[in-house]
What we know:
The protein is an alpha/beta fold. A hairpin with a 2-residue loop joins strand 15 and strand 16. It has helices at about 90-100, 120-135, 145-155, 175-180, 180-190, 240, 260-270, 275-290, and strands at about 5-10, 15-20, 20-25, 45-50, 55-60, 65, 70, 75-80, 105-110, 140, 160-165, 190-195, 200, 205, 210, 215. The protein folds into 3 domains: about 5-60, CATH 2.40.50.140; about 70-215, 3-Layer(aba) Sandwich (Rossmann fold); about 230-290, Probable gtpase engc, domain 3 (Ribonucleotide Reductase Protein R1, domain 1, Orthogonal Bundle). Helices cover about 25% and strands about 25% of the residues. The chain is built from 8 helices and 16 strands. Helix 4 (about 175-180) crosses helix 5 (about 180-190). The strands form 4 sheets. It has a 6-stranded mixed sheet, with helices on both faces. A 5-stranded mixed β-barrel has the order 1-2-3-5-4. A two-stranded antiparallel ribbon has the order 6-7. The protein is globular and about 65 Å long. The protein binds zinc ion. Zinc ion (ZN) binds near residues 255, 258 and 262.
Amino acid sequence: MPQGQIRKALSGFYYVYYQGETYQTRGRGNFRNRNLTPLVGDFVEFESGNKDEGVVKELLERKNELVRPPIANIDLGVVVTSAVEPDFSTQLLDRFLVTLENKGIEAVIYITKTDLIDEETYRSLKKYQQYYESIGYMVYLPTNDEKEQAIQDLCGHFANHLTVFMGQSGAGKSTLLNTISPELVLKTAAISTSLGRGKHTTRHVELIPLYEGLVADTPGFSAIDLAEIELVDLKELFPDFVQVQDQCRFRGCIHHKEPGCKVKELVDEGTIAKYRYANYVQFYDEIRQRKPDYSKKK
Ligand code: ZN
């Protein structure tokens, strides 16, 4: 049976890419009973007599999946965040980063709107850039003159990867994507359809082949909750903590109130950024106070 990849989901159809062709398929009836939903990005076994009437028979194992946007098998997340309007926020950035870390997705940070900031703000953003790069994240902070090169470098990450763009509303993600490929924005823009009375707006997810890879846009978020992150996992999602956690006095130290905590020592010393620790504590409290969700499977 042929194995292809779902590159688009729309109106109940899955568009499966296989050997240079796209096949329109439907999901096999019993997926629902098995609590399975085929996602864009899924590798599937499918049957198809012609290109319009195929059936997805089986989903192959996923390496990861995001809920928003619903995409599977993501390799790289580009977090688009603005220098200003809205102001740069490490808390928002860290929300994206821990979400990606939690799924084992590599993250790259791209900071927009640098043409709207003064010299002082630029210098402080440079410091953030240095810190995040020191803990393993590539950060693009291009001035106007550097933009073209930065975008070219960014596209260099796409090859052989499934890349997803994410960012808060107003971060300038659409502008950036438009520069990379107008097709990307166009194809994933909201589609308004008239259904009986009134307008119905839907967004669909589609993977666009670009620079030898596949790229997806996502709607801008106004807030990111940490709903999928378990409390015990949180400390593992901060690479700056993970690097030194072996030196904490207690195994399984959560870097909160324990004595002999290396993370807290390094925060006091200024080696680990204070804002990273503050965000960690805030996320920790947020997850701890969340109501248990018994409906969750697993
Ligand atoms: Zn500790």
